[in-house]
């Protein structure tokens, strides 16, 4: 039985899917091979050739797989010669060389055809979600390494009350911490309202675009 593994990273934008892929590649000293499925001249044959040429110890990354084929295998990129079965065949070829894995990413797992992510292809599905209290505290600690556990807890408490029923992504938190990188931990603790103001602003902009 060949040892092969495929992964699906799914969840809302800004929760660390791409960042984790980069961290995994660095940690395990694997090459990262990005496959751009939306390329208009990608054929079944060229995809298969690309997969076969991937070096040993490499992670093949196929981002936003929901952009190419829908749940009923319908094709979204009109001029592309790639077929759904061509994609499946290519994925089945990953892992012939030692240490090869693939990672698919999507913001919408429910929009994928089950054949793409069934066992034997994407065996491990990992959901990336909005920041948990623990993640918020860890990020605070990362940016303010000299803060006390009590300060971390009150940052979480302040932020949760300012957020009320809203949720926050790790990406939005990172933005806040970078903006406050010259402030003290106490100043950051007092400024959590800024995260919420920014979230509401972004949500308004989004509504205007739609
Ligand atoms: N869990 C996390 N912990 C720390 N930082 C995070 C985390 N998730 C995201 N970030 C930060 O937020 C930014 C965006 O994250 P990333 O690009 O990995 O999100 P993504 O899940 O790939 O989003 P998308 O679905 O839009 O591609 C990065 O700069 C990253 O450092
Ligand atoms: Mg990403």
Automatic annotation (TrEMBL):
Residues 3-132 form the AAA+ ATPase domain. It holds the Pfam family AAA. Belongs to the AAA ATPase family. BCS1 subfamily. Keywords: ATP-binding, Nucleotide-binding. InterPro entries: AAA+_ATPase (IPR003593), AAA_lid_BCS1 (IPR057495), ATPase_AAA_core (IPR003959), Mitochondrial_chaperone_BCS1 (IPR050747), P-loop_NTPase (IPR027417). One of its GO terms (molecular function) is ATP hydrolysis activity. Transmembrane segments: none annotated. This is AAA+ ATPase domain-containing protein.
